[in-house]
Amino acid sequence: MNRKEIFLKKRYNSEKRFKLYGKLAISFALIFLCIFLYKIFSTGFSAFQKTLIKVDVTYNSELLFLDENPSLDDIKNADYYDLALETMANLDLNADEDQQNELKRMVSYIFDTEIKNHLLKNPDLLGKTSSVLLTASDDLDQIFKGNYPRDIPEDLRRVSDYQLTVYDKLIKDEKIISKFNFSFFTRADSREAELAGIASAVVGSFFTILVCLFISFPVAVLAAIYLEEFAPKNKITDFIEVNINNLAAVPSIVFGLLGLGILLAVFHLPRSTSLVGGITLSLMTLPTIIIAARASLKAVPPSIREAALAMGASRMQTTMHHTVPLSMPGTLSGTIIGLAQALGETAPLILIGMVAFINTIPMSPMDPSASLPVQVYLWAESAERGFVEKVSACIMVLLGFLILMNLLAQIVRHKFETKWS
Amino acid sequence: MKKINAKNVNVSYGSKQALFDINIDIEQNEVTALIGPSGCGKSTFLRCLNRMNDVIDICKVTGEIFINDFNILDKKCDVVRLREKIGMVFQKPNPFPKTIYENIAYGPTIHGMTQSKEEMDEVVELSLKKAALWNEVKDRLHEVGTGLSGGQQQRLCIARAISVSPEVILMDEPCSALDPIATAQIEELIDELKNEHTIIIVTHSMAQAARVSQNTGFFHLGNLIEFGSTDKIFKNPENQKTQDYITGRFG
Lengths: 421, 251
Ligand SMILES: Nc1ncnc2c1ncn2[C@@H]1O[C@H](COP(=O)(O)OP(=O)(O)OP(=O)(O)O)[C@@H](O)[C@H]1O
Ligand SMILES: [Mg+2]
Hints:
Chain A is 64% helix and 5% strand. Chain A is mostly helical and 421 residues long. Chain A folds into 2 domains: 53-180, no CATH class; 199-416, Orthogonal Bundle (MetI-like fold).
């Protein structure tokens, strides 16, 4: 072989090696992604199932202190607690007082409300017996889902031997059923894992992102248009440009401190609200959108500006009639990506107090609210076993929103962007 | 009759001077060709005539350019009005990524030239007819202009330029991106247009300059070496450099 051939062979080999390294790197990343997703899905999946106990409730008007023909209001205002206790005690007629207490703890604390709502739906059940589905307590829920070992000493368990025997009897009678957990999506956070839902976090995140969008989008787009189309290129604009890029690199927790120090301490905006969260996050999103908007303004060919100017359009008309509309798809997709980043941001929200325990669904950005990433953090902190699956489920919902937003950004970019030859 | 009269025009980009003391008279309703080797300043001069150099921060233009006896380099000159009077066609066809109709209607719209939809339809039709494009696109006025062929796009740009009835049309190598057939169509068009407009065309093709123009100016390294009737420049140039350039000895 002469030198040239050896050289050629070397070149081919190095190319092959390079391709191999690339493939290895990609598989490495993919494996990690798969492990991560598998972990999340396998633990989080069961949170979408809810365990219910079917009990027979006798709607005894005496226990409810109702007269002969009660109005709907009377039914609504009656106290169902005694009836509910009685219902649970009926699961085991031989139970002593302690055991009755344990029976009560097999369902969630809203069992009386559940019994009441069932009657409100069909008021003619008064005086009759009907089976009602009650939410099982989180410990029983975990046992049913198999997440909780039962072959360990009783004092290490949160479910007593007595409760287990009742539970096994209920299983045999097919009184324990599992249903899709709607309340996970409709209820706010709760101290009780079986009742905790993500509604307050979803609504809170929605308001936060909305506030963030309404503040950062107009400001960022105007700034980008000015810098790209009107500002003279000099030292001052160079300095501004460098600082916008710096701003994009500032750790998010710093923005949280800024929100805490200025929005809460100086302007006294209400603590823990999406309003403050949104304003804080908009500081973070601002540079992202400015950079995306400038890039897509730059991508509009100068020949289009020249064409408009040569037709006698003013600079303002050229910008507003041609450049800005043509740059919009890129700007919008950058905005969506910026908002997706903001959606996953946790640290600044914790600093401005969105970490508080909120068990109501916010009605406006001025109400105290939770947010999805902080909800993940809160539940992950919680010691109770029942919250483990909730953490993963909440992450799944968050990931779902993020994937949706990134997909939308892709669609906006590819569908509406003008292709320049 | 003189339409444009440039006096001692100097142009520099930053510290680099691109044009030196250009003096030129351009006749009304004639085609004037500007030729010369690459980088000699033809485009720069053309862009002085509609003040397109204003857009370039570092570009400084001095001297006087009279159009209809009005100095357009004067501060008082309104560039929007000026560019309404002086249309321009660029080297690469650059229609707006909008419909054919909107491309043509843009100029009349921003200058408030029409009162009604019917009037606008008329302007669009007339412009497209003058640009010899009407028959090819009359059935698809509402399709995007960028979907046309290169030659059609360039004629669309010409139609767009004449939609506001400019007095002067500047053309910077309008055929360099086109094939011979499209080029021939555009040359024919230029011949038509000179009846109503004054045309200045930059070209790299000697043959094109000879075919379409009545007057020719030869630029070299930022100087206007020779200017005169096309016949004279091509058959009997006074300057040795002109002679060398048109016979293809450099450039
Ligand atoms: N925007 C600009 N910034 C700096 N220098 C420029 C700019 N435009 C043109 N020049 C310089 O000015 C000189 C003349 O350029 P011009 O474009 O007028 O040449 P031209 O004759 O049109 O050439 P071509 O035939 O290649 O189009 C060149 O030396 C060029 O480098
Ligand atoms: Mg040129």
